[in-house]
Amino acid sequence: MVGVQRRGQSHRAAVTGSTASTAPAGWARRRRLVARDAVGVGVATGAYGLSFGAIGTAAGLTVAQTCATSVLIFTGASQFAFVGVLAAGGTAPSAAVTATLLGTRNALYGLRLSSLLRLRGIRRLVGAHLVIDESTAMCLAHEDDPLARRLGFWATGLAVFVLWNLATLLGALAGTAFGDPATYGLDAAVPAAFLALLWPRLSSWQTRLVALGAVVVALLLSPLVPAGVPVMAAALVAVAAGIVWREALGGSPAGTARAS
Amino acid sequence: MTAVGIIAAAAGCYLLKLLGLSVPESVLDRPTVRATAVALPVALLAALTAVQTFASGQALVLDARVAGVAAAVVALLLRAPFLVVVLVAALTAAGLRALGVA
């Protein structure tokens, strides 16, 4: 669930184009536009879902466990991290901690969304599960209109939820058909997936240094501590960076510039 | 054990999402918190990439995975989509193993 930045920007461009020329009567058209984009984003995340499903079963999870991960955790990077830590021989608790740490950005998305969506009661409880990169980006892309931003959030969240889980199932079934993952190179696919998720975030020298520092910490600790711990220890690099570069890294309002 | 881990991770991730929707913006919306939240995925994904590329248990090794990830870097530089990047890495590593090179 990445690559939102580019999509978000194109939405923004498309939206300003359409609102400039339409009055309130343009809602029907806007609604179609938002719904179509939501499905498009959902389909695009399918590719990640397929990879996740295949990697999940290759990492030793059953098809049911892999699917449960997509239904219950439902935030891509955290899911990849969860199965990745397990695949590397880490314990379930260290996998869960790493996955949760990666989910912290969703809290910031929630902060940004709460004033835009004003969810109460059951809607907030259900909506919370759908707070992900894509639904946040689509809500913010249609920020100017209360109806459109609500539709953007819900339609995108639901479209991604359905297609992400479908794709996970297909990928998981395909993954079990492969046999020994090493023979087929699936053990190289796992780090490649992490790298692809990381790539768009390396946009400033600060984030590049954070990445470098995390790599050094993780590799230095790997021979010394149990699997799973080096990755968690690398989170301390992020905490240090958050303090030192709080203006450079935290300057933009929550959940906007770094939607991916 | 894996099932417990899935439920724990799901609970943690869900509560973070709900927390964001529930607390007043001023509580969490500080530069240090925002900066750490931006840096966390970078650090964790970088560490995961490194560990998954070089670690085998607690030992650091150079095997076909390194070539696979190097191929993934080339694919990323060429702006290949996610699925292509992952496939290129897997096929490179699998190809080298089939040839008996790594």
Question: What is the fold's blueprint, element by element?
Answer:
The complex is a heterodimer of chains A (260) and B (102).
Chain A: H1 4-21, H2 27-58, H3 63-72, H4 76-87, H5 92-102, H6 104-117, H7 121-129, H8 133-141, H9 146-176, H10 181-184, H11 186-198, H12 205-221, H13 229-244, H14 246-250
Chain B: H1 2-22, H2 25-28, H3 31-54, E1 55-56, E2 59-60, H4 64-77, H5 82-98
Antiparallel strand pairs in B: 1-2
Largest sheet of chain B: 2 strands, antiparallel
Structural class of chain A: mainly alpha
Order of helices and strands of chain B: HHHEEHH
What integer value in Å does the Rg of chain B equal? 19 Å
In terms of per-residue confidence, which ranges of chain B show pLDDT below 50 for 5 or more consecutive residues?
none
Q: Cα distance, first to last residue of chain B?
A: 33 Å
Helix content of chain A: over 70%
What is the share of helical residues of chain B?
A: over 70%
The overall pLDDT of chain B, averaged over residues, is 91
Q: What is the terminal-to-terminal distance of chain A?
A: 8 Å
- What is the number of E strands of chain B? 2
- Binned strand content of chain B: under 5%
Largest interface: A-B, 117 and 77 residues
Helix count from the secondary structure assignment of chain B: 5
Helices and strands of chain B: which structural class?
A: mainly alpha
Arrangement of strands in the largest sheet of chain B:
1-2
Rg estimate of chain A, integer Å: 19 Å
Number of helical regions of chain A: 14
Description:
- The complex is a heterodimer of chains A (260) and B (102).
- By secondary structure, chain A is mostly helical.
- Chain A has one domain.
- Chain B is mainly alpha-helical and 102 residues long.
- A two-stranded antiparallel sheet of chain B has the order 1-2.
- In chain B, helix 4 runs antiparallel to helix 5.
- The longest helix of chain B has 24 residues.
- At the A-B interface, helix 2, helix 3, helix 4, helix 5 and helix 6 of A face helix 1, helix 3, strand 2, helix 4 and helix 5 of B.
